[in-house]
Structures are given as structure tokens and as C-alpha cells.
Amino acid sequence: MSGSIRHLYVHLPFCAHRCGYCDFVTIVGRRGQHAAYVDGLLAELALERELLAPELETIFLGGGTPTFTQPRELERLLTTLPPAAEVTVEANPETVTPPLAALLRRNGVDRVSLGAQSFQPRLLAVLDRVAGPDDVRSAFYHLRDAGFDNISLDLIYGIPGQRPSDLDADIGEALALWPEHLSCYELEAKPGTRFTHAHGAELRRQAEAMEDYFERVVQTLVGAGYRWYETANFCRVDPRDLRSRHNLAYWRGRDYLGLGIGAVSTVSGERWRTTPRLGPYLAALGADRRPLREVEPLPDSVQREERVMLGLRLDEPLPLEAVATSLDPGALGRLERLGLARRVLGDGEAPAGADAGAVTLTTRGRLLGDGVTADLLA
Amino acid sequence: MDLDHIRNFSIIAHIDHGKSTLADRILELTKTVSGRDMRAQVLDTMELERERGITIKAQAVRVSWKAHELNLIDTPGHVDFTYEVSRSLQACEGAVLVVDAAQGVEAQTVANAYLAIENNLEIVPVVNKIDLPQADPDGAAAELAELVGGKPEDVLRISAKTGDGVAEVLDAVVERIPMPAGLVSPKAPPRALVFDSSYDQYRGVVAFVRVVDGSFAAREPLRAMAQGTRFEAEEAGFFAPTMKAADTLGAGEVGYVITGLKDVSRLRVGDTLTSERRPAAEPLPGYKDVKPMVFAGLFPTDSDDYPDLRDALERLKLNDAALFYEPETSQALGFGFRCGFLGLLHMEIVRERLEREFDLDLLVTAPNVAYRVLERDGDWLEVHNPAEMPRELDAVEEPYIRASIIVPKSYVGPVMELNNERRGRFDHMEYLSPERVLLAYELPLAEIVLDYYDQLKSRTRGYASFDYDVAGFREGQLARVDILIADEPVDALSMIVHREAAYSRGKALVERLRQEIPRQFFDVPVQAAIGSRVIARETVKAKRKDVLAKCYGGDITRKRKLLEKQKAGKRRMKQVGAVEVPQEAFLAVLNLNDGGKK
Fold this sequence. Notes:
The structure holds 2 protein chains of 2 kinds.
Chain A: E1 7-12, E2 14-15, E3 27-28, H1 34-48, E4 56-63, H2 71-80, E5 84-91, H3 98-106, E6 111-117, H4 121-126, H5 133-145, E7 151-157, H6 164-177, E8 181-186, H7 194-205, H8 209-223, E9 226-230, E10 233-236, H9 245-251, E11 257-259, E12 264-267, E13 270-274, H10 278-286, E14 293-297, H11 300-311, E15 318-319, H12 331-337, E16 341-344, E17 358-361, H13 363-367, H14 369-376
Parallel strand pairs in A: 1-4, 1-11, 2-3, 4-5, 5-6, 6-7, 7-8
Antiparallel strand pairs in A: 8-10, 9-10, 12-13, 13-14, 15-17, 16-17
Chain B: E1 6-13, H1 19-29, H2 35-52, E2 60-65, E3 68-73, H3 82-89, E4 94-100, H4 107-118, E5 122-128, H5 137-148, E6 156-157, H6 166-176, E7 191-200, E8 204-213, E9 215-217, E10 221-224, E11 230-232, E12 235-239, E13 243-245, E14 248-250, E15 254-258, E16 272-275, E17 294-300, H7 306-319, E18 324-330, E19 334-341, H8 344-356, E20 362-364, E21 368-369, E22 371-374, E23 380-383, E24 396-408, H9 412-421, E25 425-431, E26 436-444, H10 445-449, H11 452-459, E27 465-475, E28 478-485, E29 488-489, E30 495-498, H12 499-516, E31 524-530, E32 533-540, H13 556-571, E33 574-576, E34 579-581, H14 583-590
Parallel strand pairs in B: 1-3, 1-4, 4-5, 5-6
Antiparallel strand pairs in B: 2-3, 7-8, 7-16, 8-15, 9-14, 10-11, 10-16, 12-13, 12-15, 17-19, 17-20, 17-21, 18-19, 22-23, 22-24, 24-26, 24-27, 25-26, 28-29, 28-30, 28-31, 31-32, 33-34
Helix pairs in contact in B: 3-4, 12-14
């Protein structure tokens, strides 16, 4: 018997050290436990296997630092996972050596997401990043040398002390590498992190400057030939579709299964988060039981709301029919008049009923996406 | 009792100069209340009030002193209640004027003394608190003698706290204060002045009366002469200090009549009671109808509390005839009431009672005064709300006050400066003593209602004392300033200001609003305008970014919760045209001058 889920997320929590701004479930060091953890993942996969479709579309290995995992264990995991059309692994630049790049390549990985964040040593230090600018570049070349033709770079802007010229330099350095894909995030002060404690006040002060930064990022990358296909994501305009298929699944409201500590799954109107604690996780799976999970039911109305919230992050039109009952009837017209949203029909006809056609946001509308979404929802 | 054994008097004093302590000592000394019962009795009354919701104040207590019946009539202690003081004084022939030996004469003492003199009362000047180490009884006595036109030797020196000299005060009341005048004959058509009233939920309106002619008894059909209200007296009596029924209340006496009326508005203070069977030909001279001069909008911060606010105001009104209210709707603040008050303290008291006794959370708009506007047809229209004022004004009148300010002489300069800024007109200045000066000014009331008192206190390091009474309406160079948010006028923010101040006030308000209004999807102009002429303008710049960067599988729930919060925030916004303005923004602007008043 098999299920219908075509998207699998696997969490690899181990890191060499913890960066101050990070609020993911991470575990520093513990090299001795990597094998046990991979055993756990594989046991969990076996327990949930029946949820998965016979053929997966995407697998995403996130972290943590997946490439910090002991190479032998990483390889064991990759060879045991089912095949998928797109397999992405997140990597930190300092971990990417030629052997590692080769290991990923020979085990079916076809996409690497490289956490560059910045090319300024001063700003990388603020973020507690280990890698320097040269590490980013050499990691990128090692991946290219190993045959990767789909590499994504992560950049962070809004780092305390970052001047507009620093941002321009970071974008310039990234473009010089000409990656297939770029993710650009504004640094968020996540509550409870060391970073927020140290820099929260500075982040609040610079909030207004971030409006400029965001516009600058979008303008520069679009000008350089990238498609701004999601709020924070860009891909090269190319005969291939270089969007992240895995992440598109989230944004289109598809079901997905997450494996590992702290991993989130959304399956048939239910969302759950597996315990973030390593000990209980391993103990449960050692006894062939499901680890503890926190379950959140997703009624239809909530699913529609999420559909709008996520769908409006994309540059593709969001069909109205499925979500019409959750929308404020007057809002779309208002947003259209403000030049923030547009109603579109597939074949260019004039829109008919209230739930006919689809909605797409203008550039300004996308920059104001959260506010627009809040407006649009009833 | 025959008239020459009756004395009716009040104690008048500045707050904290010892009025209540003296009254307590008098009750003890005359054995009206024993020292031991004093506390118990007061407590009993309060419990009774709690249990039955009675709010009868002991307005006039009868005591016996050396074969005389003395009626001590209470007066409210504050500037806003001048009119209440004056009506209480009309029930008396004399007043004990108390001054703190350490503080000397204060502006309020002056105002009250003048009121007493205007009412032809005999004044018994008393310097209190002579036991205090910092007391200056000679200095205070000299000031007091100067004020009432007597000799310092005639000023009594007492300590109400220790009881020292209190007997002499009672002797002086008997000796110096004249006996009441009136027709004693039981056959004379009875007349009694209603000088105050109270409401008891079981017994209805209780009238506090001073009998002038004839006598009153229970079960007698009575009539209020001005209003024509008829009722049967359920009970007549006096306070000693609790209510004691009496067979009759005779000429010269002070007491109460329980009317059984269920509506306070049917018996106005100042009316004359007479007998239905033997009616008097002429009513007694009544009081001027007191009009509220200070107005403000009261809005519940939670619109669901509107019915509670209405009920609370109705109940307050039962015991506070001076309180005025009418429903007001504001597009920015929703449903509320425009309330009229005698003055700022009255407003504060009402607000505090509403919040404390009725547990309401209120938004009070900046107060304004009553205006008189000349209409096209030549009639004068009284306006209580800037939003109701015609946009183009031909002639407007505003209330002026006569202010008395007493300060140490070194602060005369700063006070004059303040009064000049506030459009004050200097009237005169007198030296109460070599050190202390009384400044008399005429000022527009509108200049007082904002932060005048705070300014006066801060510029004189707290030394100034201040009192006023209303002098009448005068023409003013006034303008209505409207505030527009995205070209929509906001009713709650309209204000009437002097033309010269219009620009700076408009600018200040508009700047403040610019800071308080959250940025929207579009530029929002915020303007101050007189008629169609814009006098100040600011722009709330459009928001350019409102989106969280990262959103993957593990973030969705958190993002959705943030979104729901954002939506809930929008729902709490007030809509001004297309602009969403949080209630807090109005609050910040309207309470602009609220700082440190309590």
C-alpha cells in the first residue's frame, strides 16, 4: 500500500557550532551520535513509508548543517532514501570539500543550497559564521567541479553594521558566481536567540532602512536576469525551470512529510511537529515506536487561509475559486485601485464572478505582501 | 425654638486647612456624637450606604450649644463648586472662615470670603493649626483681618486637632452671628429654600431645606413654587448627625424633607417649598441656574461598554444636578457622551467616579468650553462641541473668568508672563502681606481648561494658589480648526482656538498624528485647516515593505499566527475614510494635555 505524499524533508540537526541568530533545532558536535541519529531517521522513514507516493518529486536535507554529518553516515542515509526528481542538500561553505561534493553527487543529490550569507568578513563575524568569503567561493567551485549545475546561495541582509555599499558588494560577489538560484533573507531577530539579545535594539533601529535594502535586492537581481519567483527567492531565467521544486510544494499548499527531530509534516489536514529532543526521539524509534509529536489540526478554513498566505508569496497567479469563501469581498477591488493586486483570467477575458480567475500581486503588492494578505482575508 | 436661639452657619476653608477636623470637634464638644462613637458612627453610615445604596450626605447637622440650636451647613471645598458654596451660604447667616496658620490666606479663601460677604454673612475669622511648629498665627491673623475687614484681635486662634479654642468658636457663632429672620407664626404661609438635594433609592429625592417662614410637618401636601411640582412630605427632620424625624421644622431651622419623588429633575435646588393649603404669594429669591462651562466627550474604550456608561451617568446625575450629558457619536471614537461640567475638578471627579465606582475604561477628549455663536438669523447659539461649530464664523463669544491668584511676591513676574500668554487681562494687584500678593485677572476660560493650573504651579514652584469665578461671555477672535486625515475631517479632533494660536496648535497636533498613525499602503496627508484653508500639513509616508522574508514548511504555522495577529490588529482600527487609525493614536492626541493632572 502506498500514499500520495511526494515531498520529503529530512532534518539533520548537527552543527560544528551554533550561530547566534539561528533558531532551528540544532545540536552542536556529538559526532558519536550521528550514526544513531541516521538509524533513527531510517526507522522513522520505515514507520511512515506508507504515506509516501511510489515516486517522490523532491527530497530536501536541511539542518543544522547536513554536510557536517559524518560522511559515512550521510552517505548511508542518502543511499537508503528513496529516489526523487529533485534532491537538495543544505551545506555550509567550510564543510564543502571535493570529496564531500563527490559524495553528494554520486548519491543522487542534484541541488545544493550553500549558506553564504555575506561576503564581508566583518558581517560574517557578527553572524558567528565560521566560513570566510574565500570559503564560499571555493565551496562553490568544488561543487561546480563535482558536476553540480543547480546551486543556490543564501544571502542575509540587514546585518547590524551593514551599509548599503556592503549590500551592493554582497550582491555583486554572489552574481559573480552566477548561481542558478539565490535566497535573500532579511535578518530576523527571532525571540530568545543570543543574537536578538545582543542586537535586537539595533535591528529595530534599522527597520526603516530595510525597506530600501529589500527593494535594492529585488531590483538588482531582476536587473541581472533573475526571476523573483517568491518573496525571498530568485532563480536564473533559463530554459530549465530553476525554481526550488521542494519549496514550491510548501508555497502551493502540498502535503509533505518531515523526518527527524523538530521536523514538521503536513498531511491530510493535519500538521505535526516531531519532538525536538534527541534522546526521546532515539529512544522511541529504538523501540520501534513513533516519537512524540505535537499535532495541530488544520480545518478547511485554515488551509484556505494558508493557501492565500503562501500563494501570494509567488509570482504565479493564485486561483480564486478554491479560496473565495475566505476572502473579504471588497478587499480585492480596493487593492487593485491601490495598484497592489491584479485580477487575471487565463485567456484574458474580463473577470466575471467574484471567485472567477486568479489574483496576482504587483511588485509593490509583493513588497507589502503580509499587509496585503491580511487585508485580503476576511 | 424661637429665632433668637437659632444660629445657622457654614465653615468655609481652603482644602486641608482643617474644615472637617473642626466640624468633628464641634460634634464631639456639643455631645452630638461622643468621642468614642465618632469612628463607629461614621463606619455605620458607610456600611449602611453600602448595603442599601443610600447616598445621603449629612449636609446640615444640628448641634446644641449653651441652650442654642446651631445648624452647621456643609459646603463643598473647591473652586468648581463655588455655586454650591453660594447656595449653601444662602441658608446661613454667618460663616466660620478657617485659615491654616502655616499657609495663610489662599486664593480659595479669598473667593469664599467674597462669596460670604456678597451673601451678607457675618464672618467669624479663625486661624487653625496653631499647634504646628511652622505656624505663624500672627501673620495669618493679620492677612485674615485684612481680608474680612476686621481687627487681628478678633481673629480666633485654635487647634481643631487638639480641640484648643473650639469652644470659643461656638461662643463666637452664638455671639457674633445674627439670628435668622422670618415669620415664626405657625399660621404664616410657609416658605423653605431648597439649598441642596440628594437621592435615596428607597425614599426618593431628599430636599435639604432652610425654613424661612412658618413651619413644615410630615404628611403635608407641598408644592415647589418655581417648578410647580406637587408632593406630600413623607417625613421632615434634621441631621444629628444621622437623620432624625421631627414633628415640625420651624422658621429659621435647617433640615430635610423626604419628598418621595423618584426623579431628581422634578425638584431643583434653589426652588421654594410652600404648603399646598396655605401657599405663599412669592417664592424666595432662588439661585441662578448654573450652567456647565467645560465640556468633553466621554467614550468607552470598549464600545460594548456604552450601555454601562449610559447607566453610570444616569446614576451619577441623580446626585449631581450640575452634571450634563447628551449622546455623542464620533466616527473616530464611536458612541459616547458629550458631558458638561462646572469646571476641571468636577470633570476629574466625574471621570474618576465613573472609572472607580462603575469600573469603566474611558477615553476623555480634550476639554473645551461652551461657545456662543451668532447665527445668520441673528440668534445666539450655544455650542458645546467644536465639531458642531459652523466652519465659517461671524461672531463668537467665549466664557471669561475672574481669576484670583495668590503668590509670594517673587513669583509675580512669572505669573504675569503666563497670564499674558493665555490672553489674560490684568485687573488689579494687592498686597495681602508684605510677602504675598493677590493678582486679579480676567482670562478666557478656554485658556484655563488645558494645562493652566499645571503651568501656574510649575512656574511658581507650587506656591501659587488659584481660584476663579465665571465673569460672562465676551467676543473672541476664534477659529475652528479641523483636522483632516487623507482629506477626511475627523470630528473628534476639531478644536476652537484663538486665531493667533491656530497655526501652532494645528501644527503640533498634525505632527503628533503623523507619529501616531501607522504607515499605510499609500501616502496619508494629515492636515489642519481653517475652513478650506490648510494651515499645517504632514505626510505619513506609504509603507514600502511589509513581508517576512523566510517561509518554509516549518514556518507556516508561526507565520499564520502572525498574520492572524495582524488581522486582529486591523479589526481594532478605526476607519477614517480609507485610512486605518488605531484608537491609541486618537488617545495620544486627545490626551495631549493630560499629563500629571491627577
